[in-house]
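Lab notebook, entry 76. We have the chain sequence and a SMILES string for zinc ion, and the next step in the workflow is to get a structural model of the bound complex before anyone spends time on docking refinements. Request logged below.

Task: model protein plus zinc ion, output structure tokens.
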Amino acid sequence: MPKGIMKTILDFNSLPESEKSYFLEETWCGKCNEPDLGIVEPELYIENERKYVSGKCTVCGESAISEIIENEIKEE
Ligand SMILES: [Zn+2]
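Result returned:
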């Protein structure tokens, strides 16, 4: 890991219910190679000024990380 990475853990339970269920369901597991399998044991944190939710895939138990994009404007 490069130096200078700041990881700040936030309280996942402080999120509104709608956001909690969204982040628990809208996931990507790189091992299963499947979206939306869901995660358990979620952790909310900020790293390099980006916000992430990590947790364990409900299928394989591998950790899955979702970046939270708060700006909904898509420029694709
Ligand atoms: Zn998985």
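Notes for the group: The helical segments are 17-25. Worth checking against the assay data. Residues 7-67 form one domain.
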